[in-house]
Model the fold of this input.
Amino acid sequence: MSIVIPDLTARLTSWLQTFAGDDVRVEGLDRVDFGHSAEMLVFTIVTAANRIDVVLRLRPAPPALLEPYDLSRQFQILSALDGSTVRAPKVLWLEESGEVLGRPFLVMERVPGDVYEMEPPDGPNVTDRRIRRMCISMAEQLAAVHTVDLVATGLVELGGGRDHLDREIAHWADEMHRVQRGELPALERLLAELRHAKPEQYPAVTLVHGDAKPGNFAFVGDEVSAVFDWELTSLGDPLTDLGWMELLWMQPVGLTSHRAALSFDDFLAHYEAASGITARNRPWYRALNAFKMAVICLIGSALYDSGASDDERFLMNARGISLLTQLGLADLGVIDKLDDGPVLPVSAR
Done:
């Protein structure tokens, strides 16, 4: 649910003068209607010396889909990745106080590229070879995320990587219990099975993106130009990103719905060659991410139900909770038909 900010251009201009001088002005200010987790503005910073196209990422108004929403941590991660092989946007400034626009925000350079969130690439220049190369480039960039030097970048300071799987399970279990509006037998069973069957964590601790899906990669031509949305990034088990990616690959929209897109097994082969990381226990990691996605959809359902959000996408996504739960249970060998409980908003039941 977006809010109207009075005198937005004037507020931004005044704040930017601290960094860019008194002659700065803001041009082309516009909102971006994309994604669920944060509001974004695009504009151009103009000074006597140059023009910079930027994106402003505004902390969502609480309660948000992803809480706690740590914008400072995102700024720290993106700053650390500058100069690495990971193609992440370059961050410029962070406003933490909320005094300028009512909520904290960060400003980053606008990266050229197209994002294929829902529709596949189309047009006369889109060949099967280019689609395959786009998938390979995505595998190479995910490998770059997982092989970034944590010490050299300072990302090792994020800490907590050795107990990543336990923290992931505990966090999404806590979120489920925080927003549930009654008994949830199917999700509770999936949680119990995940805990019971939890494998040994992958021995190498890496940077983990946390939302590694095809819709978070931008492309110029057939190469990834940027990896977006670092809200869920941490240190830990890289196979959690693979489980998330595979789960999304199984629900083909956007790039992966194109007839020439790689199979996930082929994507994985390119990733393993580039990263040196070998996938294992794939069903368990798919199930973990099915639980995570189902809980995120449950949070959206609760936000919609309470009136905290009027985003119709939350209502649509809530209808997928049952399917996600069934997928996760099936991956863990559970075929019992269990009741979902109240996962839909009242208006949709």
User: Anything to note?
Assistant: DSSP finds eleven helices and ten strands in the chain. The chain has two domains: 8-111, 128-348.
